[in-house]
Amino acid sequence: MARFLAFRLLRTLLTLLGVVALTFVLGRLTGDPVALMLPQQATLDDYNRMRAALGLDQPLLVQFVRYLEGLTRGDLGRSIVFQRPAAEVVAERIPATLALGAPALLLSVMLGVPLGMWAAYQRNRLPDRLIAGLSLAGQSLPSFAIAIVLILVFSVTLRWTPTFGSDTWRHYILPTITLTLYPLAIIIRLTRSSMLEVLNQGYMRTAAAKGLSDRIRATNHALPNALIPVVTVIGLQVAAIISGAAIVEAVFAWPGLGTLAVGSIGGRDYPVIQTIVLISAAAFGIGNLLVDLAYFAIDPRIQTKAGG
Amino acid sequence: MEKALTPKSAGIAASNQAMPALTQGQRWRWLREMNVTIRVATVVLLIMVLAVVLADFIAPGDPTAQSLRARLTPPLTNPDYLLGTDGTGRDLLMRLLHGGRVSLLIGITATIIGTVVGVALGVVSGYARGWVDEVISYVAEVQLSLPFVLLAIAVALVLGRSLAVLIGLAALSTWPLYSRVVRGEVLSLREREFVVAARALGGNSTHIILRHLLPNIAAPILVLATINIGRIILLESGLSFLGIGIQPPTPSWGNMISDGREVLPVAWWISTLPALALMLLTLAIGTLGDWLRDVLDVAVG
């Protein structure tokens, strides 16, 4: 188990290193920071001194190592717009995004798995077709278009929910629904197809032959096996939810990471967007490590394969 | 003697099965398997494509022309503005048709680029293996670990907002999806008898890839490409909605939905009509993609 986990941890770190390299390269493309910082009347001498002071005269690899060192100290640069450390600016916005993203992920799993199972058991009957329709809609409909229609119906016409903002629990309803639809659709589809595959397996027939009840067969035999591919996809949904949040937050004027990211374009606030990208990649990495841990709980084959 | 030959002939039989010749009945099987939903989706898609292609005949004029006296005209109230106008009196029907044209153009161009790049890298990955494979798979994994909208925001901030950047981003967003699938298929195909035989007969890599590998992975690529047209249109409209994609005054459904958001309580149609058009288009494409996946019996996407 330790070897398996160490391997996965190394992979995650390598992927994160790739993301860091990407943000570093993109950062170099934003333009000459020295020229931006110096006043108009600065001389070439001033320019060179400033360049040396910032370490920009060093070879690119040295600069990259310094950049990495900064990251390990939590130094993610200063926000150009807010004139404060970017890490601080971004950290303030995390709770708002989590408050939408966490319920969305939870809801999509808690609804998606039972709905997918039910659809598999009702294969080609009406419930299956309805659930398949819901899943297709969730996957192919744009979240902000859904949000507009939801606002039109529930806020503008029926006046049940507020349109924008995040002040009361009522403000959470529409953004959470909007954000849940896509991961819900993915989880439904995967649970259904995985369940259909499992139901055809020999051990399911054995269980039936042993006279086990439908319920026991479903929960103790079919579900654990069907869940294995589903768990993988839950990890991948972290990235989908963060992407989705950027758009959903814009629709509902939600004060989270997404709104901050979009706002950073106007002020060309690269340190802020870089911090958000790195934090999202880290969240994705952690999410997938948790998925690896979950594998141990549900798939004994991995324990034997990893050599204990 | 005969026993020694058996495995070989079994191998040939297996390779024949890999590329069965379609009989006349099988060739049209897909048409009979289209149910009502699929037919509706196809018709909707055809009508939408036709409408945006013929935009200049259906609603001739400049989609950016403002008419302040006709601001916020509701749909179906003024014969001059069949679907109404927006906050600056621009004709909504015209803007819808031109916006749809942009979406479809980007969807198709970026899908073609993404497919070619993704399939090429996937084939190279699976065929060459070794460090080339490691590098390509690593880059794909790094990209898939990033929420793409955020990456797009960062790139837009750095490289500016333009059509070329948008198409580039849209194409970039999908290549790892192809390369992963194609790599896996090529890895298993390259050990199959008909590929080994082709190599033994002196076929070079280009010949093997073009004549033996690609035809056998056409089905998953077709399914992925169909689904990805929808995904790219979603991405483009999402980015345009955020103000990173198509720049106003050029209409796109994304920026039209964004325009009308503020006045939703008084003029529902400005945001809602492009939102409905977009939903109809992506739903039609999604339906067709799902159906293709079932008919061709591939598990991708």
Topology readout:
The complex is a heterodimer of chains A (308) and B (301).
Chain A: H1 2-29, H2 33-37, H3 44-54, H4 60-72, H5 86-121, H6 126-140, H7 143-157, H8 170-199, H9 202-209, H10 214-252, H11 257-266, H12 270-298, H13 300-305
Helix pairs in contact in A: 1-12, 5-6, 5-8, 5-10, 5-12, 6-8, 7-8, 7-10, 8-10, 9-10, 10-11, 10-12, 11-12
Chain B: H1 2-18, H2 24-27, H3 29-32, H4 36-53, H5 55-58, H6 92-128, H7 130-144, H8 148-159, H9 163-189, H10 193-200, H11 205-213, H12 218-242, H13 253-260, H14 269-296
Helix pairs in contact in B: 4-6, 4-14, 6-7, 6-9, 6-12, 7-9, 8-9, 9-12, 10-11, 12-13, 12-14, 13-14
Query: How much strand of chain A?
Result: under 5%
The overall pLDDT of chain B, averaged over residues, is 84
Approximately what portion of the residues of chain B adopt beta-strand conformation?
under 5%
Q: How many helices of chain B in DSSP terms?
A: 14
Shape of chain A: flat
- Counted by DSSP, the helix tally of chain A is 13
Termini Cα gap of chain A: 5 Å
What structural class is derived from the secondary structure elements of chain B? mainly alpha
Greatest interface by residues involved: A-B, 54 and 47 residues
Q: Describe the sheet with the most strands of chain B.
A: none
The mean pLDDT of chain A is 85
Q: What is the ordering of alpha helices and beta strands of chain B?
A: HHHHHHHHHHHHHH
- Tell me about the biggest sheet of chain A? none
Number-wise, the strands of chain A total 0
Cα gyration radius of chain B (Å): 24 Å
Structural class of chain A: mainly alpha
Distance between the termini of chain B: 48 Å
Could you characterize the architecture of this molecule?
The complex is a heterodimer of chains A (308) and B (301). Chain A is 80% helix and 0% strand. Chain B is mostly helical and 301 residues long. Chain B has 14 helices and no strands. Classes of the chains: A mainly alpha (308), B mainly alpha (301). The interface between A and B is large, with 54 and 47 residues.
